[in-house]
Design brief:
The structure holds two protein chains of two kinds. Chain A has nine helices and no strands. Chain A has helices at about 5-45, 55-65, 70-75, 80-85, 90-115, 120-130, 135-165, 175-185, 190-220. Chain A is elongated, with a radius of gyration of 20 Å. By secondary structure, chain B is of the alpha/beta class. In chain B, α3 crosses α4 (about 115-130) and α4 (about 115-130) packs across α5. Classes of the chains: A mainly alpha, B alpha/beta. The interface between A and B is medium-sized, with 21 and 28 residues.
Amino acid sequence: MTIDWGAFWPKVVDALGETVLMVAVTLIFASILGLALGLLLFLTRKGSLYENRILFVLLNFVINVVRPVPFIIFLVAISPLTRFVIGSTIGTWAAIFPMTIIAAFAIGRVVENNLVSIDPGMIEAAKALGASPLQIIFGVLIRESLGPLILGLTFISIALIDFSAVAGMVGGGGLGSLAMTYGYQRFNTSVMVVTIIILIVLVQAAQYAGNYLSRKFLRR
Amino acid sequence: MIQFEAVSKVFTLNLKPFYAVENVSLSVGQGEIFGVIGFSGAGKSTLLRLVNLLERPTSGRIIVHNRDITTVSPKELQDLRRRIGMVFQTFNLFNSRTVYGNLAYPLKLAKTPKEQVDARVKELLRFVGLEDKSEYYPEQLSGGQKQRVGIARALATSPDILICDEATSALDPETTGEILKLLKKVNEEYGITILLITHEMNVIRSICHRVAVMEKGRVIEEGPIFDIFANPQQATTKNFIRSVIQDQLPSSLLEKVRQKHPGRLYRLIFKDGITSEPVLSRISRKYDLDFNIVYGSINELQGSLFGSLIVEFIGEDSKIHQVVEELRSVVEALEVDESDN
């Protein structure tokens, strides 16, 4: 089976645009939610600034329930909620919603892990200098964990490129879906190879950008 | 300046109450360098952290700047903490900030105008001798330099009290000397009251005016440095003193000395001024009594000389008694017995 490359390239460009949109929008919303979630987990843990056992156990439980669910099942399972929020269960935005939720939980864990590894002495020093809890959160906790946090976010965004392919199942579009429909289902190997190469370049670029930014904040 | 009134701090350890600090009453005067010494686990670190409420006391009152700090509001506590600088054993500098950033941070917290921040940071850098390290990150500094930044940061908001938690314990002896000199300068030039804790008697000897010895959460002995060094009462205190001054005879040596010198042994403590006078020979000549110096040392303590001699008197008991009585009017004289010399 031959393919009309002239008609195919615009499809690739569109798909690339959809993938980038899905990943970028998801990353922005999931980062905000995930940061809040991670901070909440860290701050409510034992001995922390706002120790609260009930909230901590509850959050921990919810995250551990959501995270092991395979994305494709999660996608279908929360489709009623997606319809309620987005107004549809088909299309790019309908894919962004479940991706954001699942990524937020993952980022929450990454944030929590990075905060736990901050030297408690630094938090103590800030307290002794008269910093308020909010000043400690923004001036010490987030600031000091930013370097490794960016690496964590890079890792998540690469996972999101993968997730976006699954999102093709609900008509989310994107490169992954292109590779599936043209390359896999229609046995067109060259299309599959092209899209996969583009995906690889995308992942490399994301990793490079992440490493660069993290180095800037880690100053190493 | 700082007053502890019957302060206790109880932790729960394996479901049992554990007294980290038990019924401590202490008073640190303005402009003083007060040292608390004890082995690890003696409760000195907890005691220090009570001063700026990093730990809350279980009972008792802590008065700082004439206020019972346990009753202040969270907002007032932040202001209070800006007036109490804290220096840490592990420095606890902010790794993502430069030296400049570390010093500017407390000023920003206190909402100091930008021009003033800059001027103050430069002044602090000059004071601790790190003008050329302004743009360095903590990881690029040596331990001694890090602690200089730690001290400068604690001084940024011009506190009148500085509390030091084992400030030199992570440093080598030479750097320890430099940091102690800096703390002394802080005390002398700015008149800042310093409360420090340590397990090194050398630190106490070098810069403290008064010392309290802690053991198992309690203060077992307290007083001016000279008095404590000259006449320690508790075994722990004696051990600490022995770690820096060889003024006492080890018991193994004492036995040998006893064999050679059957006379009565006295330990004489000479304080400043008296070290240069021939008291011993003058008094013993007066009573025509022979003496023999068996062991001795002269040490410097807070800029004064502190001498300790173990002397054997040879003669009749009544004569010895007279000599010792007369000696006691100028120096301290204690008879040496086997168990406790």
